[in-house]
Amino acid sequence: MIKSLGRLGKIQDSRSAMLVQDIEGSVGNYIKDVDGNVLLDVYCQIASIAIGYNNPGLLNLARSEKWVRASVNRPALGVFPPTDWAETLENSFLRVAPKGLNQVFTAGCGSTANEIAFKAAFMYQQTVRRGNKDFTAEELESCLLNEAPGSPDTKILSFRTGFHGTLSATRSKSIHKVDIPSFSWPVAPFPDLRYPLHENVEYNHSEESRCLDATEKLIKKWDSQVAAIIVEPIQGEGGDNHATPYFFKGLREITKRNNVLMIVDEVQTGAGCTGKFWAHEHWELDTPPDFVVFSKRLQSAGVYHNLSTRPPQPFRNFNTWMGDPIRAYQAEFMINEILTHNLAENATVVGEYLKEGLNKLSTLYPTQVSKVRGQGTFIAFDCENTEIRDKIALSMRQHGYDILMIFHKI
Length: 410
What we know:
- Helix 8 packs parallel to helix 9 (245-257).
- This protein has helices at 2-9, 44-47, 56-62, 65-72, 85-91, 110-129, 137-142, 201-221, 245-257, 325-340, 343-364, 386-398; strands at 30-32, 38-41, 103-107, 155-159, 187-188, 226-231, 261-265, 291-294, 301-305, 370-375, 378-382, 401-402.
- It is an alpha/beta fold.
- 35% of the residues lie in helices and 13% in strands.
- It has a domain at 68-339: Type I PLP-dependent aspartate aminotransferase-like (Major domain) (Aspartate Aminotransferase, domain 2), CATH 3.40.640.10.
- A hairpin with a 6-residue loop joins strand 8 (291-294) and strand 9.
- Its EC number is 2.6.1.19.
- Belongs to the class-III pyridoxal-phosphate-dependent aminotransferase family.
- Keywords: Aminotransferase, Pyridoxal phosphate, Transferase.
- One of its GO terms (molecular function) is 4-aminobutyrate:2-oxoglutarate transaminase activity.
């Protein structure tokens, strides 16, 4: 493995690589490296493998005529969609569309999908502000100079320790942002809950109320319009931070009161890992979010929304590929597997078993295992320090488990 990484490092930055994968030898939930080690992959790459390695059904699909032709003749979907594109969308992404949303805009990755949602939010708000009228000459001329009124000073509000792949909204780690210019966008506090939840109900309710109050104050006092807020159901990359449905319902009420759109970033939490296909289903909102962004486990990306947030003019939210048909074919197969085999429900069962075991360990070894939390199999715990964390990670790998330990202060 060292030799392989050394060769790669000469032509590409390989310092983040954990192992060199033997793709052919990886099967199901087990990943094999070039040295012949086989590990139970409990992290699913970076939360991006939904139904295991070398799934026989997916391999057969990849050999199909439609897959081969779509791969060889990748279409620019916004201009030249293939004959089966509408059917493919209906049988894949729209089959599991979040309740209340009936449009899908496909994309290449989670970062791109979030930026598509941002653009749609900005366009919607400005369309409303100009009374659904056509652009003025001043708007058309000033936007080319990056000046108002064509380039308005509107914002996206995000939350501390959130990660969205877009620099101005990401708040998880300095390493992702340092040295790079960003927009002056507002950041609201995200609840810091105490665990176990059932022993800290009063404190956690007060903490979530504090964050809700701070969010609404930010929206009202900011020097320019907040077009939308973006929030993750679970802040995975930022520390596996959770909040209760009370908090998210409160956010939705704030956005409705203040004419702000709500973007839910389900890049890491979608496709059943939390016990429901979409993590925000746990909140039981009275009105759906305006946008739901997906990627990772579905091997594709995109944004769910409604017709009201589709830009009035064509070519405004647009890029060359606008997704990829073969990834939609892949998502269609995986969605069917998840639904047919009740994998989301199984995630609940397995998750409860795992949390029960971790909670027992936390009573015996409180410095090694604390703050056990999670939904479905999206589970985390804290270590007292990085030395303990590193020892646990090394021991787990030596015993055949591929896990990810994240140091959240970098």
